[in-house]
Write a structure and sequence with these properties.
Layout: H1 11-46, H2 49-64, H3 67-88, H4 98-123, H5 127-135, H6 140-170, H7 182-193, H8 196-225, H9 232-235
Helix pairs in contact: 1-2, 1-4, 1-6, 1-7, 2-4, 3-4, 4-6, 6-8, 7-8
Length: 236
Amino acid sequence: MELLSPVAPGWGGTLLVGLLHSIEIAVGATCLGLMIGTAGAFGKLYGGPVTRDLLAVYTTVVRAVPELVLILLLYYAGTDLINQVLTAMGYSRVDISGLAAGIFVLGFVQGAYSTEVIRGAILAIPQGQIEAARAYGMSPGLMLRRITVPAMLPFAIPGLANLWLIATKDTALLAVVGFFELTLATRQAAGVTKAYLLFYLAAGALYLALTLFSNLIIGRVEAWSRRGMPSVKEAR
């Protein structure tokens, strides 16, 4: 009987492919979450009563229900609902890719948290800047581009960066629905080779490397957003 080597050829590449899929989902979900969060934040701050109430329900429910439950609900029930609607409209059922479904599910969850982060960042802007822009006769669009967005970035980036790191780890939850990402690739490799400690340590090292690289980029972005502002030491 031929014995499997503890590190079978090709498993390293399999883990890297899984990591690539995890990064793809995290990037897509973060971008989708930012779009939802930006719209949600402005809707909560400047929308009508119905808009604010609907957004309050959305953010409350998403933040209250465990993410794994939401993933299972949206992944299975959401895709089934889309196909039922298409069938009712006379169209044929579609096979939604796991990548698209994963991005939508995590992006929907990220959007609720991004809404509150961006809303809090906008509220942290000194009101004198907004009043000065209005006094100069700036249009809402110009004020958004010249005042609101640049002024809110230093307050929003730490929270949004934290959401990005959470998204990279939440991709592991998609393993329960069979999407091939780093955790599922690790589980398959460990199951075949029986080298559980080796492969799970390797997966942990890959997640750590992704986090360290992300922190490096986030630090540069945060320093860029705070240019011209006094540092903590200078403020003291």
